[in-house]
Amino acid sequence: MSNHNAANEAAAQIQPAKGKLGVMIPGMGAVATTLIAGVEAVRKGFAKPIGSLAEMGTIRLGKRTEGNSPLIKDFVPLADLNDLVFTGWDIFGGNLYDAAKTAQVLDRDQLDQIKPFLEGIEPMPAVFDKHYVKRLDGKKVKTGRSKCDLANQIRNDIAEFKTRTDRQVMIWCGSTEIFLEPKEVHSTLEKFEKGLVNDDPDIAPSMIYAWACLKEGIPFINGAPNLTVDIPALQDLSKQAGVPTAGKDFKTGQTFMKTVLAPAFKTRMLGLSGWYSTNILGNRDGEVLDDPDNFKTKEETKLGVLDYILQPKLHPDLYKDIYHKVRINYYPPRGDNKEGWDNIDIFGWLGYPMQIKVDFLCRDSILAAPLALDLILFMDLANRTPALKKLGMQEWLSFYFKAPTVPEGLYPEHDLFIQSMKLKNTLRHIMGEGLITHLGLDYYGD
Ligand SMILES: NC(=O)c1ccc[n+]([C@@H]2O[C@H](COP(=O)([O-])OP(=O)(O)OC[C@H]3O[C@@H](n4cnc5c(N)ncnc54)[C@H](O)[C@@H]3O)[C@@H](O)[C@H]2O)c1
Description:
GO terms for molecular function: inositol-3-phosphate synthase activity. The protein is an alpha/beta fold and 446 residues long. It is 40% helix and 14% strand. Nicotinamide-adenine-dinucleotide (NAD) binds next to helix 2, strand 2, helix 13 and helix 16. The site of nicotinamide-adenine-dinucleotide has 34 residues, from helix 2, strand 2, helix 13 and helix 16.
């Protein structure tokens, strides 16, 4: 079969992106409102979707000499932004215009341009329990006989949304929950479903949404560091039902920089003795993370990356004794404009020490919104692509996460450029195009 035929045949397996794509968001705070307002601003032609690989990125096909680098959105069949319809849940009343004003991420003038659209979306009452997010008090919260009853109420909300949209994706943009470890109740679907009936305390609200979502056959994305779908019960459900899951914790500011710099040191065989990271952050996320139990969940995903990238067991002379510390300090005056400092102690030839300082004055939700958009578009694509759908877990989207979930026995790839290659090669693969290995010998003749 010619390359052209192979490509046509592969592409024909993917269902087209016809009709409305419903986006369901538990947690409509800073990230969610910045995403939704941003999509509407782009649709109206007021702004560009900067930071979105799916909307702005290109993908090279064939040899460098062929000059064939289409836009990703022209290469794979992604949903059109005009077809996105949003809904979600939150514990705060009011509409999304008010929620976006509270989040203080986007300028008032920009919000006013799209005010009627934002006013038209009102979060549904949430499944919430203060035990899991200590610093928040729920105002619009569902009540039910048991966690199972609450989960079924979410299923009803989803069923109603299904009548208004053609396909759906759920993305958790809710708060970071307290640190939970996998327990017996998470070990099988049967035990998990019994746990729902028995109100097991190890079943957090995010798990209730995720279970309802997967049962309804809808892909689930975890933007927070919560345990949520990283449990055998829900992974089995995802795989058996062929419903994509992806997570976890958007890789936005400091960890994004870390997974660029650490691979650079390792590639050059430069040693590392310490990496001190601290942040000041004044938004609601910062307030929630000010509680030690909630911070522990975030700390785990932030700390993991260096070990996997640097592989101290393979390179003990360079990375055996790294002192790695991560701090997040709640500092209200900064709002969503986080400042992340890194002090990095490295050493080079003959062990001579050097230092690098990074001061990233970033905007948390401005960095997160395009990642959320890409994940929505790519997870919808995965759900229409038989070769990806059957996998359940979508590791090829690890590019977007601080703590990518991987099948048991595999370590996660954290290096941003390996992740980017993995993502693009997956797109080439599902479209029947040749993979790009960067070997390049074929440019030199025989
Ligand atoms: N750059 C970033 O902003 C970034 C990066 C990585 C991860 N995250 C994670 O994304 C999540 C959202 O961040 P944010 O800045 O938008 O926070 P936020 O506090 O502005 O929004 C979170 C919202 O979730 C709601 N919520 C909490 N529990 C809920 C529940 N059970 N059901 C429904 N709603 C619930 C809260 O009321 C709040 O409105 C957090 O977990 C955060 O750690 C954010």
